[in-house]
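ugh ok fine here u go
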Amino acid sequence: MTPNSVLIYTPQSTNRLVYIFDLLLTDLLGLKYTLTHDTNEFTNADLPKFSYSKTPIGNEVFFSAVNLLWEITVVPKPIAIVEHKNMAGFYPALPPSALPFDVFASSFYMVSRYLEYLPSKHDNHGRFRGSQSHIVKAGYIEKPLVNMYALEIKALLAEKFPSLVFKPGQFQYIPTFDIDIAYSYSYKGWKRNLGGMAKAFLISDFTAIKDRILVLLNRKKDPFDNYDYILEECKKHNLHPLFFILLGDPSRFDKNIDPEHPAFRALIKRLANAAKMGIHLSYKSHIDPKIGRKEIERLEEIIDDIVTINRYHYLRFELPISYQSLIKQGITDDYSMGYGPHAGFRAGICTPFYFFNLRANERTELKIHPIAFMDTTFTHYYRHNNREAMRTLRNIIKNVYEVNGTLYGLWHNSSFSEQREWKGWRKIFEKVSEEASALMQKDE
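structure:
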């Protein structure tokens, strides 16, 4: 046995159980594990070990188990929140369990998005409402609970088996950018610009009318043209940004520049040469694979490369069909796992993980990169002022750093316009970049 190996007794193996053990023990802690269903083998083994079952075998490290990981169905279940130290879990457990809740079932419930497979109310965009989430209700949405569970397991095993070797973790910050509307006024054609001026006139927004005219006369920079600023700021702090380009046909919620416009195509090529490029699948693409395929092919044709990463526009997706569609279309990594109305961790985790399809009861090869925050959450939903927004962002950064996680921030090029509600957001972006970068350097 290697110094990072553990033996685990459990009554039976299932796809669910192996999936969550792989995530918590191997991916997060760097452990190798062997499963046994033989109590004699487990009792006689002289090596790091623990049991996951209904009752302990002896005086080993014991984690109490409910039935969730041995089931294959998805059915409503009563959920009780158990608070422990500075975190919370589900499925209460009594001593001699090492933790007062089933840590593996709690992790699986969150990461698999079990709740989203059950009947629920959707918002006006057809999205699962975060307000129905147990961790939102309990006030733990800003904490990466699954990562915290892994560290708690590590502490319990390390105390019992001091020679056990765990992999060191390292905090990372990866800024990501959605290009929903590449330019505010430029390259939109006279019809859209006349319509925009008419709307501004109706609400007496004469500043917007003046700015539009100056931009169209090339006497002022388009307020959404912040790409040099973004790239320079990322380079300054040695950050590696990701860009997601919306290339959907025009609709009420898809309002980017014409994908055939030379200026837009030139911008996409420039960004693709500077950073990793992904598709930002349009508003209705999550339920229609044909729409998604067309948009992916558009981007591949422009950048002359294969597209493998995605984020759904409006974070609008439905499990499991949206993720099944991505897999069929060759997408290997998705960055949509977050809430619009809530900052924090929709799946309770701040580390990339593989999508587990509860309908098929199997792990897939689609890797999910959970976002920790989105800029519009603070201006459109929380209605935070800049000081409050920065306070929340710092708390999230601290929480991710403490568990050696990966912080994915979602920004928009339009958010750096310094117009209306976005005044001061360049400063916020710079502070987040500076502070997160400093923490990465601290860990090197």
